[in-house]
Amino acid sequence: MRVRSRLKRIAVVLVIALPVASVMTIASASAATRNTAPSAPRNAIATAGVNTAIVRFVAPASNGGSRITGYYVKEYGRNSAIRRCATTRCTVLGLSNEVGYRFVVAAINRFGRSAYSTPSNVVTPTAPVGTTSTITFDANGGSGVMASETEPYGTTAALTLDTFTYTGYTFNDWNSEPNGSGTNFTNGELVKFNGSAALYAQWTVSAPPTTATITFNANGGTGIMAPETETLNVSVAVTTNTFTRTGYTFSGWNTNANGSGSSFTNGELVQFTASATFYAQWTATPINVPFAGQTSTNWSGYVLPTSTIVTYASGEWTVPALNCADTPNGNSATWVGTGGETWSTGGSSGVLLQTGTEDDCVNGVQQNKGWWFLVANSTSANGKYFSNFSVSAGDTMVAKVYQSAIGQWVTVLENLTTGLEGVFVVGGDWYVATIATNTLIGGVQGGTSGLSYSGGYTAEWIQEDETNLSNGSLYPFANYGSVTFTNLETNLSSWSLPASDGMEIVQNGVTLSVPGAVNGGGLTVTYTGP
Description:
With 530 residues, this protein is mostly beta strands. The protein has four domains: 24-123, Immunoglobulin-like, CATH 2.60.40; 132-205; 211-284, Immunoglobulin-like; 294-527, Jelly Rolls. The strands form seven sheets. The chain has a 17-stranded mixed β-sheet that branches. Strands 5, 6, 7, 9, 10 and 11 form a six-stranded antiparallel β-sheet that branches.
């Protein structure tokens, strides 16, 4: 038997390598290809509209007696299927609006051979009038915001430069796919905008830093300081400050402008673990203004003089923490009172009624007490400490001196922290009770039936170096830091505390305690001693 072999018809598609121009074309969100402009085809003609190309073969129906049995077309460089054309005319749908789609075409004869194997074609779609192309940028794991870039269709422009950040990573380029499997575009590359697309930032892990750079911010000052770059985790001295600020003194560095971060002194040894900005910290330089008030050997604060008897005075403060290392055995007292200074249009009052706290350093340890004190005349001075009335540094105290509705003079010392108050009634009893219910603690502590008080013409808010009543000498004055009186009140309908009402303590030519200006209904007294 004679065997006849049968030839299989094979559709052959030739992929022709075409030159690539220096301008990229972004076609759509699904693909982006490089644009070329190959020479015109020899035997295929294509006409184009938006998203459509028509490829027409101009080859004859036969070639050397071999009849053409099929026409095939493929978009060059794309993963599209090989398309068979029923005739010499093929309509290719689903294109993106990109200049430069290329086609490889083939005409296959009945022996499976390609009659024309080299044709290719450039399809040039046209865009509707006013069409634009928009590129959106995706951080792809990074952080930040980049505005979309919109250009007129068919124009060539540079891609927006990357501004995304990704801690521990370095930006490489853009890609049309998040995983980098699409088309790459470099930062700022010139592209032809022939369709909208999304580009995804591509990242690589950064090499760990080996140095830290410290930049210096004058933070209100003037001058220039070069950044300091140091090896990580190696102790080095912070650059000495050279910034200046009029009316201020440099007090150190801080990682936050408002001083709420980590602080560093000038020239401090530091092991840097990361780059940072150091902000200069400033302290206002005190202006040396002559004291406008009065001088005393033991009183510091404010004395309000009036022409009428003061029937109510009060104030609030926090018990100070003494620096008993400076004065292991010293004394300081904080109080509110009336009548302590001689002031009257009709003569001298010569009396004093007050209540407050005494803060002592005893062998280097602070002790605190609450008390009342009365000077009825030039020869009569009486005072007592309250028992069952604990006082500690940091407690909030309120002192009141007043004449009651029935004419009795009373002092009240409230410890708002403990909820107890010490009460003294001139000519009556003195005791400790609860503030909330006025329940006595331990009963009445004493009586003062023989004492009287006629009222004073001043109101006082004072920090005092107390006098030793046994010999009339002053105790060593303890460093109390500062005390702020708030909620100052009197019975007077209109009153103020000008600078002339202030009193400072001066002993042996040395100023030990100075009051500040009254501000917002409060005043601060500050220890300035040696």
